[in-house]
Design brief:
heterodimer; A: 116 residues; mainly beta; four-stranded antiparallel beta sheet; B: 116 residues; six-stranded mixed beta sheet; 12 strands; 0% helix
Chain lengths: 116, 116
């Protein structure tokens, strides 16, 4: 069974440019989460999809961030325009809806974003 | 507000010895789960162990055990017989399913170094 995959693994862009990160969850996982970790800080929750619906987007920092989940399958996270403070590692995780209380999250390897 | 605190940025342990990684949490929800994840240098997040707030016994998974002290709101991870492959970042996490919704929040992590 394929795990959570994220693309790209590393992206270097200049301030003001746009970047789109993609996440493919484990097949059959309706829950999809985006997280971000800035160096040395906690892994911060960004948002949560259940299928194609945004269940909780309370962690999205501002309107420069746009997340979508087309057809309840893969998800994209677009940052436009990117700022220096957006640098960090963006993790995607998925889980089964029937284990959303006690089940663990399955993570991708993260997309490292560097904004110069 | 919900919060996870890991006060040890880095820890050293001698191979074959036991080590305790500290984690305290804060939530007003009576129902919650506590998780530990390992992040090796390769970047992927690996689930280690889970403890439910109503579980009477401490969780154990192989060499990992969770020292759950509910009154003190602590959920320390104990790794017995450390191995060189245990060198990694370790994250404590919590999911509270009352006001917390279904999002999982993480601490800042503890980097463990196992010495030969």
């Amino acid at each position: 069974e394929a795990g959570v995959t994220q693309f790209p693994s590393h992206s270097v862009i200049e301030k003001g440019q746009t970047v789109t990160l993609r996440c493919d969850p484990i097949s059959g996982h309706d829950n999809l989460y985006w997280y971000r970790r800035v160096m040395g800080k906690e892994i911060k929750f960004l948002l949560h999809f259940v299928k194609e619906s945004k269940q909780d987007e309370s962690g999205m920092p501002n309107n420069r961030f746009l997340a979508e989940r087309t057809g309840g399958t893969y998800s994209t996270l677009k940052v436009q325009p990117a700022e220096l403070e957006d640098s960090g590692v963006y993790f995607c995780a998925s889980s089964q809806v029937d284990r959303e209380y006690t089940g663990e999250l399955f993570f991708g390897e993260g997309s490292r974003l560097t904004v110069l | 507000a919900q919060k996870i605190t890991q006060t040890q940025p880095g820890m050293f342990v001698q191979e074959k010895e036991a080590v305790t990684l500290d984690c305290t949490y804060d939530t007003s929800d009576p129902s919650y789960g506590l998780f530990w994840y390992k992040q090796p240098s390769s970047g992927e997040m690996i689930f280690l162990i889970y403890q439910g707030s109503y579980d009477q016994q401490n969780a154990t998974e192989g060499r990992y055990s969770l020292n759950f002290q509910k009154a003190r709101k602590s959920a320390n991870l104990v790794i017995s017989a450390s191995q060189l492959g245990d060198s990694a970042m370790y994250f404590c996490a919590m999911r509270a399913w009352g006001t917390g919704g279904f999002k999982t929040i993480f601490g800042a992590g503890t980097r463990l170094f196992v010495k030969a």
